[in-house]
Structures are given as structure tokens and as C-alpha cells.
Amino acid sequence: MAIMMCMLVSTQSRFDVLMDKGTGMMDRQESKASTAGSRVGHDGGESGTTEQPGERAVRLDEIKLAIGDAFQIQAQTEQTEARYYVKLIGYLRGKSVLVTMPEADGAICYVREGQAFVVRFFSGKNAYAFTANVLRSSSIPFPHMHLGYPPLVRGLIIRVGERVPVRIICAIILPEGTRTVTAAGLLTNLSVSGAMVSSKTRLGSKGDPLLIKFRVDIREIEFVMSTDATIRSVSQDTSGGFLHGVEFAGMTNDAAIALTAFVYQKLADPSR
């Protein structure tokens, strides 16, 4: 199997953790699907495959993709774990997926026709993966390549409101007149859309804005999260402290991906 002609300088960004944790478990199923193409039709029909909990098989054109969306591609070889980032140019159902050529350190990484890749991407709150071979690459009018159109794409689905129990210390920044004050709190449950914040003092009333900062560990990598939030509920617990249900808002893509990865990690292995 052909190998990419230049190696990726380690600048892992948006997808690494989520795709390692989330779609890694789908890779073998994708490989199985790609080698069993005769049993899977382009109309999305599937025979003899079993979906795992939290996963579903969908057609690529059912996913809300936009021109310019980022894909992560990884060569299917044992000799390299290099990942490359490309952008979606477009696709034609049943024909090909058109993407930009991968780059590393500012240089184009040329690929060979027939080379196989695992393709991973993120849409909404869900992670997706499929395998594809390079059909054709060209530098005219700009570097691009055609990947084989996948019969089906495996999706890792995380429900927006699905919460996991946690105990994570957090800092809460509150507006107070023309200045801000910082309070300490404890996240007791967490989802991709919000959290329950426990604190000794009342942080505000329903509808009040605040900023929450906390850290999560994903595959032994620490991520610092900082996101705006709105208080949606306030109650008092048995110890006299306060519980605040908050909804996240304005979270960056990087933060959303990391948080989704963390929630999935806890769902898959609550002991972590």
C-alpha cells in the first residue's frame, strides 16, 4: 500500500481526540464495509451489518455538510499514524468526494491513486467516519483529489442532553456592575449543552449570564474549557449550598469537540 510522500508535522487540532476516541471504534467496521461493497448498495441499503450502541449508518448526503468543512484523513497503513487535514470541495452521490490535497508544513503531500484512507469528520455534535480510496489527484487548476464515494458513513451519535456524572472543580466569572467577580464551583454533571454547577453561594438568577472555566482529561490530555453560559434553574441542596443548571452558549468548535469527546469517554467508560 502506498504511503504519503511527506509526513505531517504534529499540529493536531480539531479532530484528534474526538476522532481517536469516538470514531476509532468504527474504523474496523468501516474497513469491513469497504471490503463488502457488493453487499451494500449506493441507495443506502445494508445487509449483514450490525450497528453498535450510539452508532448509526447514514448516507453521506444525509449529513449537513458545507463546502469548506474540514476532514481528517489517515493512511491505512501500519507504518504511519500521520493525520492530515483537507477541506471538502463537493461530492456527487455514487461517484466521488472532492477534497483539497493534504499539506504538511506548507508543502503539498502528493498521494497515489488507489491509496486507502480513513476519513473522519465532525458535523453538529456527531462524529463520522468512512474509508475511501483515492480515485484521481490533480494539481490543475489547484491541488485536489477525488475519493471514492462511500456506500455508507458510520456516525457516532451523542444526544445533546445526555449528561454524565462528574466532579470537576470550576471557576465562575460573574458580571457585577462594571467589573467581574470570580467564584468557585463544582460541576456535578455535564453534557455537550450544559452542566449542573454546585456552589456555596448563589451565583445568580434564572436568565443571568456567566462564564465557566474548567478542565477535562481526555486520553491523558488536559483540555482547558472556557465558555459562556446562562443560568436556567436554581435550587438549594440539602447541605445549604446551591445547584445551578446552566446552558452553554457560544462554545468554539474546538471546545465543542473536546467536550463531546469527554462526554463520550465517560459514557463508554464511567470509571475514567
UniProtKB/TrEMBL annotation:
One GO molecular-function entry: transferase activity
All residue ranges annotated as the PilZ domain in the record: 161-265
Key words, A-Z: Bacterial flagellum, c-di-GMP, Nucleotide-binding, Transferase
Domain Type III secretion system flagellar brake protein YcgR PilZN per the UniProt entry, residue ranges: 67-150
Residue span of region Disordered: 26-55
InterPro entries tied to this protein: PilZ_domain, Split_barrel_FMN-bd, T3SS_YcgR_PilZN
Signal peptide: none
Highest taxon above the source species: Bacteria
Protein name: Putative glycosyltransferase
